[in-house]
Amino acid sequence: MIWLTFTAIQGFRIERFFRHPPKTLPLAIVLCSTAIGYLCASFFIGFINAVSQLPGLLR
């Protein structure tokens, strides 16, 4: 998930929004993609766990 979000964020080409992009922009992209990727992965793991518990709930 982190790799997917990193690729997606790079697709936005954020450096175009700055006249002089800060030197720490690549680091900010990596940190944002790590945070968003972790949140997405946690969501999908929780969703899969909830769906796997669903048959036991319906009995």
Automatic annotation (TrEMBL):
Transmembrane regions listed in the UniProt entry: 27-51
Keywords attached to this entry: Membrane, Transmembrane, Transmembrane helix
Protein name per Swiss-Prot or TrEMBL: DUF1146 domain-containing protein
